[in-house]
Amino acid sequence: MSQRLVIDPVTRIEGHARITIQLGDDGEVADARFHVTEFRGFERFCEGRSFRELPAITSRICGICPVSHELASARACDALLAVDVPDAAKALRKLVNLAQLVQSHALSFFHLSSPDWILGYDSDPARRNVLGLAEARPELARQGIRLRQWGQQVIEAVAGRRVHPGWAVPGGVARPLSAAARERILAGLPEALATARQTLGWFAGTAADHQEEARVFGNFPSLFMAMVGPEGELEHTDGKLRFVDERGAVLADQVEPRDHRAWIGEAVEPWSYLKFPYYLKHGYPGGLYRVGPLARLNCCARAGTPLADEALAGFRQLGRGAVLSSFHAHHARLVEILYAVERIEQLLADPGILSDEVCAVALRSRRRAVGACEAPRGTLFHDYEVDRDGLVERVDLLIATGQNNLAMNRTVAQIARHYLSGQRLEEGLLNRVEAGIRAFDPCLSCSTHAAGKMAMVVELLGGQGELLDAATR
Amino acid sequence: MILLLALGNGSRGDDGVGVALGRALAARLPPGAAHLEEAIQLLPEHAEEAARSEAVVFLDAAVTGAPGESHAHQVHSRAAREALLHALTPDEILGLARSAYGKAPQGLLVTVAGKDFSFVERLSDEVQAAVPVAVEKALSWLAPYVAR
User: Fold this and answer.
1) Which of A244, A453, A466, B68 has its CA 20 to 30 A from that of A167?
2) How many domains does chain A have?
3) Are B80 and A127 inside 8 Å of each other by CB?
4) If phi over 0 gives left and psi between -120 and 50 gives alpha, with beta otherwise, what is residue A282?
């Protein structure tokens, strides 16, 4: 008789979730499901509105990565207008996207995930959080706070507000960068760079302590997808798509984001509101691909900044071909923070970034358009259709967490197979399932466009679907 | 320096009372005596600002109580909370300030119970009327810090 385990809620992710572990007749883990059970249908809110409102509306999907939605939306609107966005606006959009990457990755690494490594997966859950981290390693907690704060200050300096800035608009951005704001950003940059380098050095040096997690947390062959620049370099805002396989071999390159539907299919399962995107040519579920920091470093030929290129070379030692373990996404986040700080400095060094020509004005000239960018969690697509008056008829959002859905399910199954003993949900298993999911830094608010918080339930089911055990967090 | 952390969303009716309280309180304090920070929710970085302050007043709406009912009570630092997300509570901000920066200031939480949290950008009459009452409570508690 097969059996089922349930974990609820998963903590320290953006939103909560429910997990079911299905045992087979032999008592071994047969399958695992990461359920997302909330739904708001954000796309429907947008129908009938002017497309010019969409950057402001869609950014409200999420309080963690509103900049990503605003940028993807503005880029879709640029395409509806068929305008050439001024160079200064392009540079400012890149800069803000990188600043958001810094603040989001800092939140994920320092505040949400590092308590597991510093305090231990089996430590008291009441202490295994940023407060416990501050007691055990106050300097690390302070660095995390300062780095995230700097990322937010950059967003505020450029876009006017830290959250939901309403700054990226169709055709460009709402206001130019002032020289004073540029100087404020540069003033904090050396500390951010030092923190990024120091933290990367420390974490890379602890690799031997994490060998088991690296082996078990989402360590399997898969495809990867990310934006890259024209020469294969890291590019988070204005790139084209590249798919690579587990060997790191390029399967498709320089794919226009507007053509993403020719490459990505979406399967639906009755037990989750989160869809299951897959690489179309390999079918479902064989076309499992991952997005996010791990995918970006696996897809790019080089980072494109001096220190990040060095760090990327070190990162690549973690795998043969592509780096396969999702645990290494934590390391990848640190490489990306380093890259982002360096790239922000490069962007600010160009005097043209202070240009006051930051928005092109035009009337709508297309009826359908796609905008994309790399959100901290992976590639984000906004696909719009409008009527002749520019009113929205259809919105389709393809979100990073959704694209990692198949991989997260497989990760839960892999962890359960390794740590489940008997028919009970032990604390050690629950902690590691949570940590395995956190490695993806999922944002369920984004992926389901859901409001509020979800809780994680873990259920253990027998072969006939009978509930054997359940845990709620 | 006194830190005023005014919490809430002005687009959700009475949830904006924290911000209204912060602005009203700041206007009653001597110039340069306080720093007003408005936020949707408390985040770890607020602990850094708290640690640099002599006293912190958290100003927020309450979802329980009779509309317009105001309360002020001292906040003590707390070490931890299970299932912690990225939004913190006032006692956790003080706890994080103590752990990470070695100093937790004195803290006061001032709340006004809301009536209407719908999508409107105004306070209900009961809540609006409670603002000066709640501000007086905060001023009373702050008197020793202002006098220094």
Assistant:
1) A453
2) 1
3) yes
4) alpha
A429 is a domain residue: yes
> How many C-beta atoms lie closer than 10 Å to residue B81's C-beta?
18
CB contact under 8 A, A130 and B102: no
What would the two tokens of residue B111 be? 């709340």
User: A132, B100: Cβ pair inside 8 Å?
Assistant: no
| Cβ partners under 8 Å of residue A320, min gap 6 | none
Q: What six digits make up the tokens of A6? A: 């349930």
- Write out pLDDT tens, residues A460-472: 888 777 888 887 7
Instruction: Give the domains, in start order, of chain B with CATH numbers.
Output: 2-147 (3.40.50.1450)
Query: Is B119 an interface residue toward A (CB < 8 Å)?
Result: no
A301 Cβ contact partners less than 8 Å away, ≥ 6 residues apart: A228, A231, A232, A233
Is residue A25 domain-resident?
Answer: yes
Structural domain range at position A432: 3-40+422-472
Nearest residue, CB atoms, B99 vs list A11, A125, A134: A134
Is A463 contained in some domain? yes
Question: For A301-330, how does the pLDDT look when each residue is reduced to its tens digit (9 = 90+)?
Answer: 999 999 999 999 999 999 999 999 999 999
Query: For residue B61, what are the CA distances in angstroms to A78, B58, B74, B139?
Result: 40, 10, 16, 18
ipTM: 0.80
- Sheet arrangement for strand B55-62: B34-39, B2-7, B55-62, B106-113, B70-75
C-alpha–C-alpha distance, residues B32 and A10, integer Å: 44
What is the distance between the alpha carbons of residues A283 and A263, in angstroms, rounded to a whole number? 10
The per-residue pLDDT for range B63-84, each reduced to its tens digit, is 999 999 999 999 998 865 654 5
pLDDT tens string A436-463: 888 998 876 444 433 333 346 778 888 7
HEC letters along B4-17: EEEECCCCCHHHHH
Average pLDDT over chain B, rounded to whole? 92
Q: A2: helix, coil or strand?
A: coil
Give the confidence band of A191 by pLDDT, cuts at 50, 70, 90.
Answer: very high
